[in-house]
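note to self — DONT lose this again. spent like an hour looking for the file last time. sequence + predicted structure for the chain T wanted, 444 res
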Amino acid sequence: MGDPLFWHRLQFGFTVTYHYLFPQLTMGLAFIIVVLKAMGLKTGDTKYDEAARFWIRIFGISFAVGVVTGIPMEFQFGTNWAEFSRLAGGVIGQSLAMEGMFAFFLESSFLALLVWGEKKLSRKGHFGAALALWIGSWLSGYFIIVTNAFMQHPVGYTMAPGGVFQMASFWTFLLNPWAFAQYAHNMLATVVTGSFVVAAVGAFWTLKGLHPEQARLNLRTGVILGFIFSALLAFPTGDISGKMVAKYQPVSLAAMEGRFESGPYADLVMIGQPNVAQARIDNPIRVPAILSFLAYGHFSADVKGLKAFPRDQWPTSIEMLYYAYHIMVGLGTVLIAIMALGSLLLWKQRLDHTRAMLWVLMLAFPFPFIATTAGWAVAEFGRQPWLVYGLLRTAQGASPTVHSGSTIFTSLGFAGIYVVLGFLFLYLVAREVAHGPAPTGAKA
């Protein structure tokens, strides 16, 4: 049945990719709900509370499915990746425990207050609950990302006999500079995802002639926030993340760009196909010297190619890494363009009446989900062949006693459950969209 390591990686990649479809929406909506509640508190206009109430219901559905789909990943640390857990658990267990004990419970507790406590709380109290929900969900995101950041750029540890990682400095671990860059980029991406979903629902209602006031509010909110945060996603956070990769993982940068030869004035490959066997890019379209500038801040900077590194340090799937990176960057550019055009039409007061743009906004909501999935693929493919970069190889972290058949069997089970959960999620969200926002005073 093949190499067990392949199936372990495939199962974890599948489950984590599917799971993250839901937290990225909830984390983005958490911020948008705070914005809506703040506007309602500032203006006294109940339409903002109506919009927030609708998106709190969507948040709740996504949160529930996210919790269920996240549980299998926790078990895989003990089943498929027992050696990794044994060797690195003394470090990464700290942040994973904090995510579960603090952020998760904070998030779920205040979600209950938001859903069922609006009539019991004052407007300021309900806004406070929304603020706490946002803080909890974004704290949860940080603890997960600081765990991943240790795997990308390990700091704050010591190595005990037997290759066991131990915590040397908790604050060095928690304040990992890689985590700051990765966290900022990731969380802005969640707001972009939430903004596109909000704009898509507003566009749908506008095209159907439903809930006109709420449709306009959702369109305006989604387009404005989408434009601001998609631009920030490219610069400065995308730029900072790219420079971090260039500094600490130069071999990953070479693979992302399909660069085999070293040298100054490095070209940026816009389009092309990596030919690893012949160490070249086929059919390339290049922009001269731009990669040197983006990676190191000046056009004459020397950018190392893959040939400058030992073959056993190359990412194990250069083609997948290359295409994931270009999908992420390409879709990121498309997201900015869509929201820039939407903002222009909004400024000209023509957005509500431009049906072609409304169709674009309604149909474009999958793009940020695809872009963030590609972005995480870049991070994980780029880290290979390491579990902890430069210290622990992926092959060393797998469970030695779990064979391919067991992993295939459980993967099929997860796939079946996830299909059911996916259809249930789509049904519940479609029902809420069809029902529309509850008017002020109605039961949420």
